[in-house]
Design a protein that fits this description.
- By secondary structure, the chain is an alpha/beta fold.
- The chain has eleven helices and ten strands.
- The strands form two sheets. An eight-stranded mixed beta sheet has the order 4-3-5-10-6-9-7-8, sandwiched between helices. It has a two-stranded antiparallel sheet with strand order 1-2.
- The longest helix has 25 residues.
- The chain is extended, with a radius of gyration of 26 Å.
Length: 294
């Protein structure tokens, strides 16, 4: 599609507002435009797309199937434009942005508590922290610091080991009181909670004890350790998680360890940054801050 045939941001805003209100008049009020201006922008957008976006029935607007599909895409585009604009606005003479990617539960439970005081020590560095569960390209994603779990290798990056991992089963006290646990296989009666990023976790835990069960891969599956921990606290079953991620609940008695066997992972947690950014002030300041809190 040639550039002159691409829709304008004004057209996208008008369409999104009209679709949200199902009214050109209300959309016009929100955008401080006239009703006819909004209607004209939507008509031009329909001509560009060569699809009707609204049906007009008894003076009321209804999204067409094509309109519903395009609304989802338009919102993604507008959100990306807004995010990119804020990203550039955060750059300034006295401030610099440091983009940090972290594993979701690791970030919430381990990283964030260690950031207390960083802003006061380095007021010129603005942290932009996002969750990443899947592998990604640091350069393409504009990430300058990445926290990950693995072998300590990242292409074209320096990796600093943070901590090893020990996984333990955890469940709510009430769940444990309902099941007599005389051996590890008794845990299968509690429902094994699965974590999508660690599909082999229960199998490896049982295998390390020279045990096998067909239930190793059965049970509700969650995207993150945090969700699995919450499910365990709610009494949904028993989760296999890194001990340090569950330590708060274990100390408070909200979770218990139903069988005292822990498995040391072969992998570990690391902090990585691109080799060519090693001497950047913001990268050096952040990595030194984290290393001082290991």
């Amino acid at each position: 599609m040639r550039r002159r045939h691409l829709p304008s941001l004004t057209g996208l805003h008008c369409f999104e507002a009209a679709a949200r209100h199902l009214s050109f008049t209300r959309a016009a009020d929100e955008l401080s435009l006239t009703q006819s201006a909004v209607s004209k922008q939507v008509s031009q957008l329909e001509m560009t797309l060569q699809h009707p976006l609204f049906r007009r029935v008894r003076k009321r607007l209804h999204l067409t199937p094509e309109g519903a599909v395009y609304l989802s895409e338009a919102r993604k585009i507008l959100a990306q434009v807004e995010m990119s604009t804020h990203y550039m606005q955060s750059y300034g003479v006295e401030a610099d942005v440091l983009n940090v990617a972290t594993l979701p539960t690791f970030g919430a439970r381990w990283l964030i508590p260690r950031l207390n005081g960083f802003r006061f020590k380095h007021p010129s560095i603005n942290l932009n922290i996002s969750n990443r569960s899947e592998p990604f390209d640091m350069q393409k994603e504009r990430i300058e610091i990445a926290f990950f779990f693995g072998h300590g290798v990242w292409p074209r990056a320096e990796c600093i080991k943070l901590l090893d991992e020990e996984v333990v089963p955890v469940c709510a006290p009430d769940v444990m009181s309902q099941t007599e646990v005389n051996d590890p296989l008794a845990l299968t009666k509690m429902i094994l909670l699965q974590v999508s990023t660690r599909p082999e976790a229960w199998h490896d835990w049982f295998e390390a004890q020279q045990l096998y069960t067909e239930h190793s891969y059965h049970g509700p599956r969650f995207d993150t350790f945090y969700m699995a921990l919450r499910a365990a606290r709610a009494g949904c079953g028993v989760a296999l998680v890194p001990r340090f991620l569950a330590q708060e609940e274990l100390d408070e008695g909200k979770l218990v360890i139903p069988w005292p066997f822990s498995l040391n992972s072969q992998d570990a947690y690391y902090m990585a940054y691109p080799e060519h950014m090693a001497d950047l002030h913001k990268v050096k300041s952040f990595t030194e801050w984290i290393k001082a809190r290991l």
